Every structure is written in C-alpha cells, then in structure tokens.
Amino acid sequence: MPTNAPAPTAERSGGTPDAHALMDVTASDGSLRRFLHGLPGVDTVGLEARAAALGTRSIKTTAKAYAIDLAISMVDLTTLEGADTPGKVRALGVKAVHPDPTDRTTPSTAAVCVYPDMVATAKAAVAGSGVKVASVATAFPAGRAALDVKLADVHDAVAAGADEIDMVIDRGAFLAGRYLKVYDEITAVREACGTSARLKVIFETGELSTYDNIRRASWLGMLAGADFIKTSTGKVAVNATPANTLLMLEAVRDFRDLTGVQIGVKPAGGIRTTKDAIKFLVLVNETAGEDWLDNHWFRFGASSLLNDLLMQRQKLATGRYSGPDYVTVD
Predict the structure, then answer these.
(1) Which residues does the annotation mark as catalytic?
(2) How confident is the model at residue 60 (pLDDT cuts 50, 70, 90)?
C-alpha cells in the first residue's frame, strides 16, 4: 500500500479488511499504522456480552468427557520460575507424557513450556512421546532487551531442541505506535526459529489497555508470521479472559478467510479449572469453528489446570472425587 493511501475500508461482512487492504501494508510505519488504525473498532459491550453468554452453555456428560480429554491434549504444561531445577523439569516432562499414571488412556499434554536453559532437560524427559517442548524467549516476560540479545535467546532454545518458541512483543514500542519496530522484531524471531520451531507471539493483553489494541496486535502478529497468537505471559495481574480470547479468535478466523492461512490461539494465565477450560472450548467452537478444536491450533498455557482436569476426569469415570494426593504437585 502506498504511504499516501487512505485507511482500508471495512468491505467484508463483519467489518474485516478486504484482500486489497493487505497489499504493501508493511511497506512503511505509516502504511502499517493506517492499516491497523483502519480496523473496525471493538464494541466492548457486545464483545463482553457474547463472551459471557457463551460461558453459560452447558454440555452433557458424554460431551464433557470428550471436552476434558481434548483440553488435556491442549495444555502447554508450564514452569517458568527462577527456582526451576532439572529435577522439577524432568518430573514435569514425565507428567506431560503420562498425566495420570494410573490410567494410560489419559491423553498426553501438547507440550512442556520452560525457559531456554531447561530445553535440553525437557527434551530428554519427553523423548519419543510426541509431546513438544516450548520455550519462552526474547527476554521473557518483560521483553526489555536489545534485538541481538533476544535473537540469541531464540537461537539457544532452538539449538537445544525447542519445537516451539513463545516470544513477547515490545509492548512499549507497540503502545508508542512504533508498529513497524514490533513487526520487524517478530519477523526476525520468525527467521531465527527456522523451519524446526513454530512461533507463538505473546501480546501481554493485560498491558495493552484496550480491546482495539488487542485487535491491532492480533493482526500485526499474524502479518509478521506468527504461527500462534497468545494472550499473556501469566506474569501480570490480568491474563487470559473469555473476552480477549474471543477477540483473538475472531481475528484468526477473519485472517484465514482473507488469506487462507490458519493461525493458532493460546490463552495463558488464570485458567485453573475444568469449567474454565470448557468455556474456552465453547468460545473456540462457536467463534473460529471446529477446525481450531485441535492442539495444533489451540493451546492452554497453564500449570495448575491439568490437575483439575485429571480430578474431573476421574470423577466422571468412577463417580467420586479422589483425595488431594491423586494428582502430583506441579
């Protein structure tokens, strides 16, 4: 898009941009700004009302059993603490492969998510299982580092065997309107991932202040080559919510309609119960559609969620709750 082009108009149903609006949109800071600020504004009341309404859906027992197993298979089992030890990471890897050692019909989780220096340990723990190893990088969680430092972080994680990289955007640059800087960093990290690692782009939605900013960040991340867009680091007060996840699901749906490219979504932080997880699965099904009901396209970033899913799964199977020692402590 030429730098003097007008903002794209909402010509498709639902107010999303048409294909012409993506032409040369990243050619300059000005054209990218015009595109992002030309996206339709978010109806806050409507968004939150729809998220709340979908959260009231009830499902039958057989569907609940399916939903629990699906949610387990979508968990990125996560430990991101300064006190992480090789022993803790190995134990987490074992749990990811066999979440319930008393019931081998329990699906494995999608991935284990760790800091870059723990990737090799996690990789050994899940070897041969199909469980992926994800690693946070780019100076997680604040993202306050020079680009060469961020890229070194990514290269180290990929070299150690990471299958997925969860990067954080420069929120300061984004909030200052320096969209091309954010775009260029994402594309540089995408290149550093090579062909062996998928890229999840974390927006830290709790720091973006407005739904309009979350919509803009979603489109920016997708344009820059994200394989997934992710709500949060889990390290701030406001993390994944039904409303911000619904907004991101709308974005990936519209992006695929426009480009043919499917992007995943990962809500992270604050999702602790089976009831919460099922609400998010309903959001996925009703907003993006069944194509996203697969761990290749939807994940939960969580540490404690898995324990509740296992407890509820066992309750459905036996009719009773087990004691607190039924699940391992993460």
Answers:
(1) 166, 230, 266
(2) confident
